[in-house]
Amino acid sequence: MGTWNSIQSEKTLSRGGGTGPGNWYESDFYTGFKFDFADTVEVKPFYYLYMYPNGAFPSIQEMDVAVSLFDVSDYYESPSGRDQAFGFYKGGVTFSVPLGFMPEEYGAWSIAAGPAVYVFNSNLRHYNQGNNPWVVGTVSLNFSY
Questions:
Q1: What are phi and psi of 13, to 5 degrees?
Q2: 3-state secondary structure string, the chain?
Q3: Long-range contacts (CB closer than 8 Å, 24 or more residues apart) made by 7-13
Q4: Which of 24-38, 42-56, 71-85, 122-136 has the lowest mean pLDDT?
Q5: How many Cβ atoms are within 10 Å of 23's Cβ, its own excluded?
Q6: For residue 29, what pLDDT is reported?
């Protein structure tokens, strides 16, 4: 459960018909729960309420549900049942280039890319069909304000 608020020095999009002061742009409320079933299924429903006390927009309500399946009961154990202390190693590099053509008022933008190498223990090598080491490439678009 939580809340988030945006109070600004300007009366951003204030319509004058809101329930709060014109500088109070947004007030969000959110809550969620987590349920586990049989140690393998996780269900997380979330409720979000976005309110605009200065009348800029009508309130918005959202409901999200995330469902996850876990099947890792023997992931780090050898076939004989021995627990292996070492699971995997991951290492890599990331290169980033700023996108200078983006206007400053949109924040700082960059693009990043790089490889990562995973080295698995003998059991994980089996689960990953003998692929060891495993190379993964990533590309991302990043921005911050």
A1: 55, 20
A2: CEEEEEECCCCCCCCCCCCCCCCEEEEEEEEECCEEECCCEEEEEEEEEEECCCCCCCCEEEEEEEEEECCCCCCCECCCCCECCCCEEEEECCEEEECCCCCHHHCEEEEEEEEEEEEECHHHHHHCCCCCCEEEEEEEEEEEC
A3: 11/54, 12/54, 12/56, 13/52, 13/54, 13/56, 13/57
A4: 71-85
A5: 15
A6: 95
Residues 48-81: pLDDT tens digits? 999 998 888 899 999 999 998 876 555 666 667 6
Strand partners, 65: 45
79: tokens are 């076939």
Asked if 32 and 2 count as a contact pair (C-beta separation under 8 A), the reply is: no
Which pair of structure tokens corresponds to residue 144?
């911050």
Tell me the pTM: 0.47
The mean-pLDDT minimum among 23-27, 62-66, 69-73, 106-110 falls in 69-73
Tokens for 34?
A: 């987590």
